[in-house]
Amino acid sequence: MKKNTYTVENSGGSGDGGIKAWSFGNHQLLVRRVMQVTMSIAGLAVLWMFLSNSASSIEFHTFSHYFSAQSIKAGYESKLESVLRTASMKDNKTVIITTLNDAWAKPGSIFDLFTLRGPVGNETQWLLNHLVVITWDQKTNAYCLAMHKHCYQVETKGSNFTGEVFFMSPTYLRMMWRRTEFLTSVLEMGYNFVFTDTDIMWLRDPFKQFYEDADFQIACDAFNGNSSDINNYPNGGFKYIKSNNRTIWLNKFWFNSSKEYPGFGEQAVFNKIKLNPLISQMKLKIRFLSTSYFGGFCEPSKDLNKVSTMHANCCVGIDNKVNDLKILLEDWKKYMALPEIEKKQSNLTWSVPQSCSTSFERANEERKKNKGRLQRALVETV
């Protein structure tokens, strides 16, 4: 019987040594391959853990940032809710709102003359309990809290409204639109409000002159005698707005319309959108307030027996406003000092505007000059 012969090439070695060498070599190869596979799996595991931790970190950071932003927003809203609830008239959730920055809060400036703070108004002191002062900066808020119990610092979204803000300047426009946006949030929280510029002197209780059935009531620079006539020229510095779906829609429509009229103030934009058919479709009841009761330097109230508020409108510059408001308050004090019979028979009239009249005329002339320069520049460049 023929034997099978295995030939192993191994120079200088026997057949058994070759088999052992072959077996040992295969064992080493197997070990190396196992180690390679193990290292590959370990590498993949490490890579997976790294990516998993990175993703978790990103997700955690994103979540933390979102949660932080939501917490800050909730904090603002809860604080505002607390201020509004404390200040509101309990029977109808109504507050009085004004805004204040550092320039108007300085001693001897506009805020010190604000009628609700002094004994000048006729039966107006109770309204102070319902006044919420919205401040534009931390310094003013601290000053406000030292003087008044209902103050709230509004978030200004990166803008700086601390100094004197000149009429129709870019900062002025940003501040006015931020104010409109903020007041919309008050309506959304279910509160009615009377908004009043701080340069408005409250001489009598204005609530007695408001229309009970109106959703939106606004003062006028010029009043034509018909409170329902949409062609009256409104003034955004004094308005009474009731919270409902119609007024919330109107304020949002008003705010969003600023994009359609860049460079326009909220008062000018309202004067344009008031004619929009959407407003009539919403069945909004808008009333324009007579200057007989809600007057100003543009169109002063003529009868001191009727006047409720007087506004330092059509006036440019804090100093001019302060000067004329002081004169106005002296006129009012003289009137209030008269016996009741003499008040009714009195022919007393306002001594203002004085500085405000000339300042407004100068401002108008300057605007006309600037407009003329712009028109000439456009012609020259065409």
From TrEMBL:
Assigned keywords, A-Z: Membrane, Transmembrane, Transmembrane helix
Pfam families associated with the record: Nucleotid_trans (PF03407)
Domain of life per record: Eukaryota
InterPro entries: At1g28695/At4g15970-like, Nucl-diP-sugar_transferase
Domain Nucleotide-diphospho-sugar transferase: 127-325
Record field: transmembrane: 30-51
Protein name (database record): Nucleotide-diphospho-sugar transferase domain-containing protein
Gene source species: Glycine max
